[in-house]
Amino acid sequence: MGKLDGKVALVTGSGRGIGRAIVEKLASEGARIVVNDLDADPAHETVEVLKKMGAEAVACVGNVTSPDFAERFVGTAMNTFKGIDILVNNAGYTWDDVIQKMTDEQWYAILDCHMTAPFRILRAAYPHIKALHAADVADGREVYRKIVNISSTSALNGNAGQMNYSSAKAGVIGMTRALAREWGRFNVNVNAVAFGLIHTRMTAADAKAGATVRIENREIRVGLNPEMLKTHAQRNPLGRGGTPEEAAGGVYLFCSPESNYITGQTIAVAGNLQ
């Protein structure tokens, strides 16, 4: 018996990296999963991994910034599993530059991914959350639902070269606090997790200069300078960056029943706040 048996969890950006670790953790506790990724192959591969774990899972492939995505994503959960219990707004990426070189395209692309997309998804979920809560009350059930928004320590401290990302992730914290006040009456806990350096394909040491990933038909450079990674490890009290599994553990804290009286909060999963 898992702590999330029968719960329905929707996680954006969950075909790879931190998102995949999150859905594996939630599935290990009994949740039924709606997987999302930009690309079909990693989404369906993750679904198969979850099924081999004994979990129920379905894919909703697509770009979270597409105008029709939110309704499709929420609709996939309702049509397949008839419910929404956990929603994790995880999808994201960075497109860095100092302010004098940052274009409007860079600015809006990051805000659209990290703020507009979660806003649309949460708005699309509202009528279902309201109806599900009303049904719980009518049947005499006390059910808590969970929203977990992913922020960053860049929002808490700022980060040079990340005016767009730092601003968007700070906005996520404001969104979290506002929604916690709006949806508390539905027994919904709304919290945020601010990640520090987590080792994924996006932050791996840039062994080959110019490494990129393709996002929204753009080639986005990824990877961090090995010296930067070394400096981070030296400054961090734990002496290292985090793993996707450790990042997922922080998200799970806010998805578990133990968080039923915690809402509007942001915790840093970072080893430290620097």
From TrEMBL:
Gene3D superfamilies: NAD(P)-binding Rossmann-like Domain. One of its GO terms (biological process) is monocarboxylic acid metabolic process. Residues 7-201 form the Ketoreductase domain. InterPro entries: KR_dom, NAD(P)-bd_dom_sf, Sc_DH/Rdtase_CS, SDR, SDR_fam. Belongs to the short-chain dehydrogenases/reductases (SDR) family. This is 3-oxoacyl-[acyl-carrier protein] reductase.
